[in-house]
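Quick bug: NAD(P)-binding protein output formatted oddly.
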Amino acid sequence: MSGINLSKCVLVIGATSGIGRALALAIHKLPTKPTVIVAGRRQNRLDEILNEAKGDAEGAKTLHAIQFDASAKVEDLKKFVAETVAAYPELDTVVFSAGMQHIFDFTKPEEINLDFAAQEINLNYVSIFSLTTLFMPHLLKLGRPAFLVPISSTLAMVSAGRVPGYCASKAAVHSLSMSLKNSLKDTNVKVMEIMPPLVESELHDHQGTTPALTNIWLPLAEYTKHAMDGLQRGDFNIVVPQNQALWDKFEKERVDFDPMATGAFINKKA
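Here's what came back:
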């Protein structure tokens, strides 16, 4: 099994902006011409993506959109998955890009909005866990290569004090990705986790930090190329060269370690 070049039908959840949007369009342009489904909350943004494809009659046939809120209740998630699988039985790849980030200052705990914190954890992690669970029966039954592509962050490796909820949620996604990698290793489903650095996006607009971050973030176009290279190679962890040293230091040895397979957690009698 290799990478995303084998995909026939790709669903990108959270495709209305940033990395999700860029990846959806880049995947759609692959020479293998997969069908790409862009999903997100904002219908106007979905319409913009579809309009971009109208200049290419053939390309427009393989680009579709579904309005969908990944933070919805479980019953709505179940309905979305059932309807999507029914409409696109060739679906073999799911990219999880929906996310949010809030600044929380624990030196001012009275100012922390716990509703925002719960929403952040739910969208960034719980929705991925839930949707992975719901899509899994379909993916396992395909009988050919299928892919799960969670998007975590380099902040899953090292935490930033200003965004503790975001860091924790991305660390959870990273841990889930490793668990899935181990549990699915003998199946047709492969996990490819994207771990972006600080990348040009709208994620920070509501924080008022975008003007300052424009001086240090990685341009979206440059990042997308790195991410697509990793997806086409079939990398488990996809990191940019600038963060390779960080990944080597904290993750290189543990991502291939399966504690259950090695018996590391099995109590043995003396």
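Actually, after a second look the formatting is fine. Residues 98 and 174 are 15 Å apart (CA to CA). Closing.
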